[in-house]
Amino acid sequence: MIHHLIQQLIYQSAAVQLLDPQDEIYARNQLLSLFHLDEFQEVDIVEERDINIPYLLEHLIDYACSHRIIDDLFDKKEIFAGKIMNCVMARPSTVNQLFHDHYLKSPQLATDYFYELSKNSNYIQLERICKNIEYKVSTDYGELDITINVSKPEKDPRNIELEQKVKSGDYPKCLLCIENEGYAGRISHPARSNHRMIRVNLLGENWYLQFSPYVYYQEHCILLSEKHTDMKISPDTFLRLLTFVEQFPHYFLGSNADLPIVGGSILSHEHYQGGRYEFAMAKAEADWHFEMAGFPDVICSVVKWPMSVIRLRCKQIHPLVEAGAKILNEWQNYSDETLGIISRTGETLHNTITPIARKKGEVFELDLVLRNNRTNEEHPLGIFHPHTDVHHIKKENIGLIEVMGLAVLPARLKQELNEVENYLLGKSEEVADNHLDWARELKDRYKVTDNAVNVHSFIREEAGKKFLKCLEDAAVFKRNEDGREGFQRFVRAFSHIVEVS
Fold this sequence. Notes:
The chain is of the alpha+beta class. The chain is built from 16 helices and 16 strands. The longest helix is centred in the C-terminal third of the chain and has 20 residues, at about 455-475.
């Protein structure tokens, strides 16, 4: 059986162009060593549609556990799976050369090649990602994307116990560092033997392109700095984002903000996220326009979006960078106490920006989302952060992905929303405490519909509305009369308003 599995893996890896046929014998011998085998029995391969690489990996891992090659623990199995795939794929230098060869024909061909490689090598965990719950919710701002993220498996309690006993190392320094490429992994640090990165030159600096193992949207990529340095939003950030989309015009690229609460989960390593997907925010139209003195070629607008977004458009990159730098400087020093916006507390900066770059035809776009991370007694997690009335749906930070209109909701909601459905239908009174008030409110409203609406769709739509409320909470200038006047006061500090709809 093991010989058949090994040969089938080699066959499938060659079929999806993960493995060069010249390397098949070498790959086989590497796998034999990994499975503590001294010889190989030739087997005939019968082509079967249902046999794919994840299926083969599952059975190879089962064999390794049953023959005590590895312990039957989540992290151990992940590490071994990565080592298996590393045997049947090219080294980083070859991957980069092939990427470059494709790029000379077309940037899209290059990313297509790398995306397929990342999926076929099981670095992108497609079998798990398929378990995520994904749907869209229509709003006044377009269709928001909702994802309940259940793709990451729950860890075995034995695995958690081991993590507590193991000393945390400082190599690699973080989950993004270049040193993760090919790193086997360990308890509490993910397996990366089958990890490959593309070398990208940005303005004379070394940056590295990879795809997220748990992609939230089409070709969800990460671009990370060679240096392990803190996230920082600056004019250089805008220049890098725009230079990248100039090189890869079919992708967008954005950055999480550089401050806690309004930033992402990793602020210790400068990195950006992008991909080949058009979010609702990218489709959103202008709400009103303004002009900036000294930038006649830059079209400036405020976007019709639940958060506070300024959009700059121009056919050249440098005017966008300079205009963006001016707005960043103005915002970092701007306060409006009537709206709760205070730029600093002593030396602590509160105002920053979440920037996103894209190219539409011949025109570059730079979206600047205004952020503030101040807290108070009423909102200890953040004044411009999801408020307590939506924490039962989402309590986590509103980062780059959420800003653009994609909710990444916790796995607990899969079960909890089912409970709310059953509550509305009168099948059960069992509802999580944090959802009880919401469930009672929904039950009253659902009765009014006389059950004409499918309860499953009804609950999903209502959860989507809660996410919209999260975005509205995170807006520094609310979409009401006071917020609109406040936004216009800020814009007037550095420009001239020319059109208010």
